[in-house]
Design brief:
By secondary structure, the protein is α/β, with parallel strands linked by helices. It folds into 2 domains: 158 residues, Beta Barrel (Lyase, Ornithine Decarboxylase, Chain A, domain 1); 246 residues, TIM Barrel (Alpha-Beta Barrel). The chain is 29% helix and 25% strand. The strands form 3 sheets. Strands 4, 14, 15, 16, 17, 18, 19, 20 and 21 form a 9-stranded mixed sheet that branches. Strands 5-6-7-8-9-11-12-13 form an 8-stranded parallel beta barrel, surrounded by 4 helices. Strands 1-2-3 form a 3-stranded antiparallel sheet. The model has no long low-confidence stretch (mean pLDDT 97). The chain binds ligand LLP. The site of ligand LLP has 21 residues, from helix 10 and helix 11.
Length: 419
């Protein structure tokens, strides 16, 4: 459920026609709906309400825009961050350090120190080596870092290979069989306060079954570690709940997810932590683009739009599907290849897709672009960095400027020995 719909023949974000935003800000532009974000944040939170003790840390990587983080902070969300940059954003949005989880497989020494000094609530350790290093850094400063050990449960998430993280061969976490020993050794170190196990098996999961097997395995491990005399007061169950990208696709609801978690964890007696990203932001955003021109192709025409793989990388990276709709649909349909202007064939959003008829100058939108959209944008082909807008009822604001190629050029320097 979202707040992007056709009214009087024009696609609106809440009460704002997208034609108005495109005319003022230009295209391509990401547009987020405040009402949709708020709704998703509340639905997810309500789905977890039956749990005795829980903490939701929004996966900042899915949409780090400051206005988005601010909105989620006001909804009681903490943050799951994977860099000092994301940590700074979360705190700039008003999230407290204690509500922040620092994840990531390659936190640098500098980042660990900064996060320690900021008082970050939980470090999700990805290896024994990282734990030893963090313990030493904390002890030197007379601090004790709350920490979780991320475990690789060797469960196939059944999602795209590039966004699977829970198979033994993936780089994430420590092997399940070694986790008990590592936890015990880390728990003995001054400077670390081991309190949790963490798991995240992948993103865009279409089924709850792999999550459930992973959680069951984590519960067994938790009991083993407790039986060995160590405290495990928290369990971090990660993110990963998928969202429909194609109209009509069926996905487990947040309620079904919450019910599964409640059932599996009923006797855990632990504070449960969650790191949702896409399920909160995915359907809350779209990417508005203008058709540059339409040119004939072998089997069907190429619709060339002014958005490209640098603005929305998911189709090029993961063969991801994003629904493509005209902002003023005529009701007629055509088969087309939707491509961007970048000079490589991976800059393709769809091949042989049944879409609204569009022609040069028409506006269109890629749906479900609120997660892993703007944040993965880059400036390839010396294109601008795409701007972001948030709509709230009948009002709207630019929440991230378009960074023009000239600004990027201005940050480059020619050494005098090349002059
Ligand atoms: N926690 C951890 C440790 C993660 O690595 C991730 C995502 C999340 C939580 C949030 O997962 P979510 O609830 O959003 O599924 N760029 C890819 C997705 C990469 C996900 C990376 N990790 C895409 O566009 O599909």
């Amino acid at each position: 459920m979202d707040h992007f719909e056709i009214r009087n023949g024009v696609l609106h974000a809440e009460d704002v026609p997208l034609t108005e935003i495109a005319a003022t800000v230009g295209t391509p532009v990401y547009v987020y709906s405040r009402a949709t974000l708020t709704r998703h944040a509340r639905v997810f939170r309500d789905a977890l309400a039956p749990l005795a003790r829980s903490h939701i840390a929004f996966a900042v990587k899915s949409n780090p825009n400051l206005a988005v983080l601010k909105l989620l902070a006001a909804e009681g969300y903490g943050a799951d961050v994977v860099s000092a940059g994301e940590m700074d954003r979360a705190m700039a949005a008003g999230m407290t350090p204690e509500s922040i989880i620092f994840s990531g497989v390659g936190k640098t020494r500098r980042e660990l120190v900064r996060a320690l000094e900021a008082g970050i609530g939980q470090f999700n350790l990805e290896s024994e080596e990282e734990g030893v290093e963090l313990a030493a850094l904390a002890a030197e400063r007379g601090l004790s870092a709350g920490a979780a050990l991320r475990v690789n449960p060797d469960v196939d998430a059944g999602t795209h290979g590039k966004i699977s993280t829970g198979k033994a061969e993936n780089k994430f976490g420590v092997p399940y069989d070694r986790a008990g020993g590592i936890y015990a050794r880390l728990a003995a170190l001054r400077g670390l306060q081991m309190r949790a196990l963490a798991v995240h098996i992948g993103s865009q999961l279409q089924s709850l079954a792999p999550l459930e097997s992973a959680f069951v395995r984590m519960g067994a491990l938790m009991r083993e570690i407790r039986a060995a005399g160590h405290a495990v007061s928290h369990m971090d169950l990660g993110g990963g709940v998928g969202v429909p990208y194609k109209a009509g696709e069926e996905f487990p609801s947040p309620e079904a997810y919450g019910a599964m978690v409640a059932r599996v964890t009923a006797d855990w007696d632990a504070t449960l932590m969650f790191e949702p990203g896409r399920v909160i932001t995915g359907n809350s955003g779209i990417l508005v683009t203008e058709v540059v021109r339409v040119k004939p192709g072998v089997t069907c025409p190429f619709v060339i739009v002014d958005a490209a793989m640098n603005d929305l990388a998911r189709p090029a990276l993961y063969d991801a599907w994003h629904d493509f709709v005209a902002v003023r649909p005529s009701g007629e349909r055509m088969l087309a290849n939707i491509v961007g202007p970048i000079c490589e064939s991976s800059d393709t959003f769809a091949m042989g897709r049944d879409i609204d008829v569009v022609q040069a100058g028409d506006l269109a939108a890629f749906r479900t672009a609120g997660a892993y959209g703007a944040t993965m944008a880059n400036t390839y082909n010396s294109r601008a960095l795409v701007p972001e807008v948030m709509v709230d009822g009948a009002r709207w604001a630019v929440v991230a400027d378009r960074i023009e190629p000239a600004a990027i050029l201005a940050a480059e320097h020619v050494p005098d020995w090349l002059e």
